[in-house]
Amino acid sequence: MWSATVGRASLRKVTVALPGTWKTDSLTCSLLTPLTASSAPTQGHIRVTAAHPVFESRPWTQQSQGCGRQGDFIQMGADLLRASNNESFTQASRLLLAEWAKFRWGVFDERGHTNDPLYPPTFRDPNTHQWAATSCADGAVKGNICDPSQPGCSFTPEPYTNGHLSSSMLAFPELRSVRLFCNDKTHNRVAPTKHNALCGGRSAWEIIHQTTDFVGGRNRARNGSKRLDPIIRYVQQSSPRYVFVIEDTAIMNLQRRWEFLRKAMRRVVVYDVPDHSHVGVITFNTVAQTVAPISYIESEDSDFRQRVGSSLPRNPSAVPESQKCLLCGLQEAERLVSADSKGSDGATIIFITTGSGHIPQRQMDEIIRISQHRNLKIEVVLYPLSEWRGSAETSHGLETLMEATRGSLFTVMDEGVGNDSKVKMMVALMDTLLAAVQHNTSPSAPGTTVLVHNAAYPGGISSMSAGTFALDDSLGPNARFSVYYYDLNHVGNAIQLTAPSGQKITSVNVQEEDGDVNMIFINLEKAERGLWTYSVENRADSHQGLYVQITAKRNSSSGLVVRLWTSAGSRPINSSDPSSPVVVYVEVKAGVAPIMDAKVVAKLQRLGTNNTGSNYEPYNLDLWDNGIGDPDITKGDGIYSRYLPPLAGKPGRYLLSANVDYNSGMAVVAKDPPSRHHRLKSHYYQQGHDSWSSDQSCCGSSLPHVHSRRASPFFRQVTLGVLEVMSPLPFMDVTPPSRILDLRVDVNDTIHQITLRWTAPGDDWDVGKAYKYEAVVAPLWKEARAFQGDRLTGLPQPLSAGALHTTNLHFPRYEELWYVSVRAVDEAGNVGGLGNIAALWVPRPPTTYEITTRTQPALTTSGNYTMPSELGSGRAVGLSELQLDDVAVILGSVGGFLLVVAALVTYCYWHTNRRRKQQYEKDVEKVAASGGSSVMVKSGSLSGEEGGGGSHESLDSIAKDTQESVRDVRPLSPVQSWGATTLLQEHERRLSVHSSAPEDPLPAYQGDAPLHAPYPDVTVTDNRPVSSTGGQGPVFIHCVHDEGPCHCAAPGPDYTSYAAAWDDPLTGHLLSRTRTSAPPIQPIPQQAHQQQADRKRRTVTQV
C-alpha cells in the first residue's frame, strides 16, 4: 500500500475479532498478549468465511454504492491464509491490496471480463483499430488477443513478457511488476472498464485523491518507510449487551402509554432477545436509576427473562417532561456497563424517550464523548411522537448523537383516542424494539430472532382474517404463531393453521395466552418446512384490529440472511436537493451465496395522520438486482437497490421496512460446482507466478453464476427505522432521470445492422417514465463524452423505468471507429447524467461492385414502427460494400415479388374469362328462348348500375354475331365487344345498305329529350334482300335468325364511310327504322349524298 500510494498511506492499526466460540487457551491458540473481550458483534471490513460459489477463496469486494463511496466489505476464503510459502503470501497480499482500494476508496475493476456485454475482455484500440486488452496500463499488455464477439473469448496476460508494466493494480495485480494505480498520464479513458463507466472516465488516482484520506492535502507523501508495520490487536467477540434507558416522566402517564411500554418491554426481553445476551434496564427523569442490573440470559427458559422483562414499575413518576435529564440516563448506563465482569468495550444503549424538549448543547457534547470513549452504540426510539395534521417539528436534537455513534432512529406515532390508545401503537413499539435489538446482532448469528411474517387486520366487521407464511431450513425447528389484540374478546375461538402437508391445527388446547403482552400464541414445535396458511376469527372493534406475527430463531449461520439499509445512513433527507439522492438497499443471501430473482419490496409508511385524520397510504417500491449501474452496481450479487422516490407533502417521518419472499418459486440460489477441487497450490504459486484467471476476479456487470438451485419457500420482513424528510419538495420538478450505464452495441456483420440496447431510466431517477431520449454519434471519445457530434433523431419513446430498449441503427460507415452516447430528459427539461460510452465499428463487406445508395442511416426500433435517423455527415456507399449475402437477399426479394405479380395476373385473367363464358351461355339461352329474330335491348341494361355492363356486352355481342354471320365479314368472339368508333361505323354501314330513295320521309329529331337521357329501348330488325320478279332491285324482307343464310345487297356507290370527326360527343336518340320493301338502288348525286351524311350525323346516339 505504501508503494502503490507513493508513500502516502499505510495501515496503522488492525483489529482482529475472533469468534466467541473459539478456544483461546495456550494449547489451541498461541497469542503473545491476552485477548480483550468485545461485546459488540463486529461486522469486519475484511471477513474470512467459507468459499464463495464464484470467487472461491480469492478475495473480492462487495460494492453496492457508486464511485468514490466506500464498499460494504471484503470477503475471502480461509484457504488464502493457509499458503505454504512466502511467494504465495506475496501474491495473496497483492490481491488483497487491490480489493482494499475498491473497499476503502470506491474505485472499481480496470480489466475486462469474459462474456460480459458491458466490460468485454478486449476492445478496439482507437489508434490502431486493432483488438487490445481491456485494461489500464502504462504500456502494451501482451496476451491472447481475441474478438470479444466470439464465444469463449477471454484475455490472460502473459506472465513473463509483461515485466515492463507498472500499473494498474486494479487491472493486473497478479503481475509481479505491477505496483501502482493508474494516474492521469497513464489512464486509458477509452477502455470499456467498470471503473471508466461508473467514474466517468476519471483515473483511479484522481478518485483516491478526493476521498477523506487525502482530500485537502491530508497524508502527504513521505520519503521514509520506517515504522510501517501495523499494530495488530486481537479481540474475541462475546455475547451482545443491551441496556434499555427509558424516560420516566408524567407524559408517559397519558392514555395507555406506560401500560403499552411495559407490555412491549416484556415481549422483547422474554421472547426476542437472543440467547446468551446480557440485558439491563434503567429509568430516568431528573435523575437515573437502575431497575434491572445487567443479567445474563442463557436460554429461552431462563428466569432472568421474566425478571428483567417485568422490572418496570407499574406507574410512571410525576416529574414533568421538561425536567428530564438524558445525560443522567447515559451516565448510569456507562456505570452499569463498566461494572459488568465481561468488560466495558462496547454495548448497545437503547434510549426510549418522547424526543420533545430542548437538550443543552453542553449535555449533547458530553453524551457524544462518553459514547465514543466507551464504544457505545446509541439507538433512539421516540415514543410516543404526537403529530397533528402533519405539523409537528422534525427536529429533536438527536441527529448528531446518532451520526456520531452510528446509531439509528425509530419513531412510534401517538395513536391515542380520547383517554384510550389503539393497540396499533403497542404493536408498533414491539416491532421497533425488536428492530433495535436486531440492528446490533449479526443477522447470521444462530439464535437470532427472525420476523417471518407480520400482518394487520382491521376490525369493525366480523370476518375470518387469513394469510400465508413460509418456514425454511435456515430457521430453527420451532416457530411461534402470535395474535395481538386490544381486548381478549376481539379474538374468536376459531384459529386454524394448515401445514404444508395438509395437516390442520384447530384445537383450542394448543393455544396459549399471555395477558401481560395481550397475546395469544401457538408454539409450532418441529414445524414442517414450506408454505403454511392460517385463519383467525376477527371480532375487533372498528377503531382497533388484530395483528398476526410469526417469529422463529435462526438455525445456523449458513441460512437465509436479509439486511436493509440506505445510502443516507442516519442523516436527514433533503428532498429539494437532487445532488444527494438516497438509495435503498436490501441484501438477500443464503450464507455467502447470493439469492437471485427474489421478490423484494421496500415499504415507506408516513407516520401520523393526514388532514382527514386517516393514516397515510403506504408507498411500495420494487427493488431490482439488474446490474444497470445506476443505482444497482452488479447483477446477481444478491444486492437489490432502487432510488428513493420524491416524497410528496410536508416534511415528515417515514418508516422504512422491506418484505422479501421467494417470488412464487422464481428465486434461485448460487451454489458451488458439483465437485470443487482444492486449487490452493495452483492458484497461488506456479513457477513464481500466480495463475488466477480473469473469470474469477471481481467484478464485471454481473457475477458469472454457473450453477444454481431453486430456493425453497421463504418469507422475511425487516425494519430499518425512520427516515426524516427535513424539507418539502420544491414547486418545480428538479429531479433528473438516472444515468444510462448499460448501453451496449451489437453489430450484425451480415446485414450491417447495429443494435443498441439499454435499460430505460425513469422520470425521477429510476421511478416513472422519462419524456424523451437524446443520443449522439461522434468519431472521438472526447466528443461523445461532451455529448457533441451527430445527433440521432427518431429515437423510441421512453418506456417505464426498468424496461429494456432494443433499437436498430443502419450505419453505412465501414471500418471507422465511432462512439455512441445516450441520455434521458424528463418533461420538465431535467437532463439525466451521461452514462457509459459504447464503441461502434462496422466491418467492410468483402465485395467489389459499385453503386450509389443513400448516405443517411435509419434508426428503427424492434417494436411496431420505424423512424428515420439523421447523421450530420455522411458519404456515398458503393456496391463494393455489399456482401454476397446482401445480393442474394435482394435478388430473392425481387424474384419473389415478380412471381406474386404473375400469379395475380394469371388468376385475374382466368377468372374474367370464366365469368364471361358463363354469362355468354346464359345470354344464348335467353335469346334462344325468345323465339324471334329481334333482340330487345332495354335502357336499364345499358346503364351504369351493377351488372348492367356485363349484360350489355353479352347481348350486343350476340346481336353482332348473328348479324355478322350472314355477311362476309370477320365475326366477333363472344367475349369481344365493339368500341364507340366501331359501333358508329357499323351503324352507318347498316344505314347505307338499308337506306331507300332520297324522297323517303326522315324521322324527326326529338328535341324535347333530355341532353343526357338514358339509352331508349331499341328494336334491331334484320332485313334480308330478295330478288323481285320484275327485274327491279332487291327487296328487303325481315330475316329470321334461325333461317339459313341470305345474301344482302352490297353498299351503293353513294356510301360514305364513318368520318373521324364524328367522334365528337353527340346527343339525341337512336331511332329505329323499319322497312317492308325498298326500290332499286339509284345513283345519288353528290349533294344528296352530303345531305344524307348530315342526316346520319344527327341521328347517331352518343355512346
Automatic annotation (TrEMBL):
Keywords noted in UniProt: Membrane, Transmembrane, Transmembrane helix
Domain of life: Eukaryota
Sequence ranges assigned to domain Calcium-activated chloride channel N-terminal in this UniProt record: 2-215
Residues annotated as transmembrane: 887-910
Region annotated Disordered, chain positions: 934-956, 989-1013, 1075-1103
GO CC term (a single one): protein-containing complex
Residue stretches of biased makeup (Low complexity): 934-944
Entry-linked Pfam families: CLCA
Protein name per Swiss-Prot or TrEMBL: Calcium-activated chloride channel N-terminal domain-containing protein
